[in-house]
Amino acid sequence: MGVLWGRARLGYVALRKGSVAEAHQILTETIENFHANQNRNGLTFALEKMASLYVLTDKHEIAARLIGWSDITHKEIGADATMHP
Description:
- The chain is mainly α.
- It has one domain (2-77).
- The protein has helices at 2-16, 20-36, 40-56, 60-77.
- The mean pLDDT is 90.
């Protein structure tokens, strides 16, 4: 699971560096894996980073939906939106 968290962070680093395609690939992979492992905290983290990608690519409606889902999920699982392993 630690490797998966590292990959999710790497996807965000790629996005910050402007490597949108690489970020999309990494984040999609981590989203799928967090989902398969039923790790909702990791899933929300990766989806928040994917929302950032959609903001950057002017897909604001998709970004807003991801952020809304993430906020609701954080409340359901009792996770602090600012705390991630």
